Amino acid sequence: MKRMPIRKLLYLTLSLCTLSGCQFLSSVLHDDSVVAKVGSHKLYKSDVVKLIPSGLPAEDSLQMALQYIHGWASDLVFQDVAEQQLSKEDQDVTEDLEAYRRSLLRYRYEQSYVAQRLSREVSEEEVKAYYDSHLKNFILDLPIAKVRILRLSAESPYKESLRKLLVSGDPDKLVALDSLSFKLAEKYIDHGEEWMNLVDIGRLVGVDYGTILSKMSHNYAEVDDGSGRVSMVYFVDYMRSGLQAPLEFCTASIQETLISMRKRSLILSLEEELLEQARQNGDFVIYEEEKK
Asked: Could you give the C-alpha distances from 46 to 27, 30, 90, in angstroms and in order?
C-alpha cells in the first residue's frame, strides 16, 4: 500500500480550519454532505449534528462542531501514521483489547453486584466507633468555623443595625435578620450550625481566609472587597488548625469511608466466592497443586 506522507495527513487536518463559519453551517444545516476528510476517512454532517445540543446559538454550535471535528481528525491522523510507521507486531492490539474487555466486564459486574447489595445507611454508633479508633486521622489541617455572613453596600444606612442582629445569639433577632436581609442586603448566609473550613468560607466572602483572620476581632470580621460592598462575618464558633476535629465535622467523610469499606469487602467476598465455586465445579485448577 502506498504510504501517504505525514505532511499531507497533517495538512488535511489543518485544512479543516479554513472553513468559514458560514460555509460550515451551510454544510451542516442542509444536507448530509461530507464536512471533513482525513485520508480515506470521511465525516458527515449527521455525525456532527447529533452531538450538538439543540437550542445553542449558531456561534456556539459552530465552535462545538469544530472542536469535535478537530478531535476526530487528530485521532485518525495518529491512526493512519501509526499504521504506516509501526511494525505489524506493534500494531497487533488483540491482547490489549482482550485484557481491557475482561477488566471492563469485571468492573461492570462488580458495580451491578455491589449496587444490589450495598447499604448506604451508616448509624451514629458506627461513625462514633470509627472516629474514636482513628483519632489521629482527624487533626485539623485548616481552621474551621461556624459563621454567619452578611454582604451589603458599605454605605448602607442599615449596616450597624444589621451587624447587631448578625452577632446576636437571640433566635428572634436572627429570624428578623433573615427576613430583613432579603430587602436590605445583597446576600445572607447562615452556617451557624455547620462547621466549614476557612478556605470554603473565604470563597463565600471572595477573599483568602488569611485576610478574614487578619480582620477578625472578638469573633467578628469586616471585609471590604473594594467594590463598594462589605462582607460582615460573625464567627459563632472557631477552631484553629492542629486541634482534634470535632466529630460532627468528620461525620460525612467517615460515612463515605465506611461505605467504601463495605463496597471493598463485598467485592473481595465476591471474588473469593466465585473462585471457590469454580474450584468446586472443576473449572479452576492449579495443576502444580495437584502434583503435590
From this structure: 11, 10, 34
Closest CA to 35 of 23, 22, 45, 25: 45
Contact between 3 and 67 (Cβ < 8 Å): no
pLDDT digits (tens, 9 = 90+) for 226-276: 788 899 999 999 999 999 999 999 999 999 999 999 999 999 999 999 999
Which residues touch 269 (CB under 8 Å, ≥6 apart)? Answer: none
Tell me the average pLDDT across 217-226.
88
Nearest to 149 by CA among 187, 206, 122, 104: 187
pLDDT of residue 135: 96
Backbone φ, ψ for residue 37 (5° rounding): -145, 135
Task: Tell me the H-state helices in the chain.
Answer: 6-14, 21-30, 45-49, 58-85, 88-91, 94-117, 124-133, 159-166, 171-184, 198-205, 209-215, 247-280, 287-291
Contact 44, 33 (CB under 8 A): yes
pTM equals: 0.70
The CATH class of 140-239 is alpha beta
Are 215 and 222 in contact by the 8 Å Cβ rule? The answer is yes
Q: What is the pLDDT of residues 15-74, one digit of tens each?
A: 444 444 444 444 444 556 888 888 888 888 888 888 888 888 888 888 888 899 999 999
For residue 283, give the C-alpha cell: 473449572
Instruction: Locate the domains of the chain by residue range.
Output: 6-88, 140-239
Cα 67 to Cα 47: distance, rounded to the nearest angstrom: 13
Q: What is the bridge-based pairing of β-strands 187-197 and 144-153?
A: antiparallel
Contact 207, 229 (CB under 8 A): no
